[in-house]
Design a protein that fits this description.
2 domains, alpha/beta, elongated, 34% helix, Ribosomal Protein L4, Chain: A
């Protein structure tokens, strides 16, 4: 797959041949969905907690005599049906993480990259660097490129001034190539890869 390389100023800087094994697959929604669920489940803290009846600080003395009251038989004020009692089947501290094989994760990343290439949401930049870390200047350049909602993936290290300028722009994410992931690719309209990121991805999946 042949893709044009653009500069940050909107000019052309040649073209690059993208591997069909990475960018030319037919995207499968089931694999992408499994990977997104796996990612989001690992973000959940799982720290929500309520007290059950064994943790309520109330006396264990029987509330009233067993017979003769005309009401139901109760032996504890800690049960969930009373105000101030314990919660039945409430949340406990636990891990929400699920397992997903490494090969499926790698396949999902390739399908996400292929999905962006297929729907025209893939842009290849010559390099992502600035002489000055000014948000206004970078926003103007993004306007020329038509980038309003994008994930920008650089090589092994992101240019510091570029990252500083981009962090105040809404709906723009900047990641090094090691941090590329399915969820961030799919949640943005455009995927912007630098030439260094393309080389790193092709080396990774070789």
């Amino acid at each position: 797959m042949q893709v044009k390389i653009t500069t940050l100023d909107g000019g052309e800087a040649g073209s690059v041949e993208l591997s069909d094994a990475i960018f030319g697959l037919e995207p499968r929604e089931d694999i992408l969905q499994r990977c997104v669920v796996w990612q989001l489940s690992r973000r959940q803290a799982g720290t929500h907690k309520v007290k059950n009846r064994s943790e309520i600080a109330r006396t264990g003395k029987k509330m009233y005599r067993q017979k003769g009251t005309g009401g139901a038989r109760h032996g504890s004020a800690r049960v969930n049906i009373f105000r101030g009692g314990g919660r039945a089947f409430g949340p406990v501290v636990r891990s929400h993480a699920i397992d997903l094989p490494k090969k499926v994760r790698a396949l999902a990343l390739r399908h996400a990259l292929s999905a962006k290439a297929q729907d025209g949401g893939l842009v290849v930049l010559d390099r992502a660097s600035l002489d000055e870390g000014k948000t206004k200047a970078l926003k103007e350049r993004f306007g020329k490129l038509g980038l309003a909602n994008a994930l920008i993936v650089d090589g092994a290290a992101v240019d510091e001034k570029f990252a500083l300028a981009a962090r105040n722009i809404p709906n723009i994410d900047v990641l090094p190539v090691q941090g590329i992931n399915v969820y961030d690719i799919l949640r943005r309209e455009k995927l912007v890869l630098t030439r260094a990121a393309v080389d790193a991805l092709e080396a990774r999946f070789k």
